[in-house]
Amino acid sequence: MTDDNDTRRPEQDAARLGLVVVGEAAALQSGDEAAMDASEENIRDAVDELVDVPLTPRQEEVVERLAQAGGTLTAGLSGALAAQTGNSVDDVLEGAARSILWQERLAQQADAGHPDGGRAEAGRSDAGHPDTRPEDHGDRDSA
Asked: Three-state SS across 25-43?
């Protein structure tokens, strides 16, 4: 459980949750019972670290199931992407984890007063794909 002296940023917490979901997807893909158990424990630990007040048992179960559902969805989408691209599911999941870490690093650079404020890579939405720039979208509204 977090305390009043916790200095983590929301981006760090979001990255932690993203990695928990990718870990759950990897465990599901592996089919290894020990990996599944470790992933469930990782979900519990992450939830415990991220909440400011103790959750009721029902709330904790709901949050754990949400993380598991996210992992299931991620596993399915990763499998589909792997089939489409000819890559392995492990490679796709590794790319997802790298992308999460990359986004966290950019947020950290922006917060730390990095010379470019993290803006050089601000448009990057996925470490495996080219940057998109608003000017590339013509006159379309962003709605």
From this structure: HHHHHHCCHHHHHHHHHHH
The alpha carbon of residue 18 and the mean position of all alpha carbons in its chain are separated, in whole angstroms, by 2
Determine the straight-line distance between the first and last CA of the chain, rounded to whole angstroms: 38
- Decide: 48 and 2 in contact? Cβ < 8 Å: no
What's the rounded Cα separation, in Å, for the pair 9 and 25? 25
Count, residues in the chain: 143
Q: What's the whole-number mean pLDDT along residues 91-110?
A: 92
Q: How confident is the model at residue 72 (pLDDT cuts 50, 70, 90)?
A: very high
What residues contact residue 103 under an 8 Å CB cut-off, 6+ apart? 11, 15
- Dist. CA 26–CA 18, nearest whole Å: 12
Give the other-Cβ count within 10 Å of 103's Cβ.
Answer: 19
pTM of the entire predicted model: 0.71
Question: Within a 10 A sphere around the Cβ of 136, how many other Cβ atoms?
Answer: 9
Task: Give CA–CA dist 15/129, Å, rounded.
Answer: 19
**Average pLDDT value for residue range 113-124:** 51
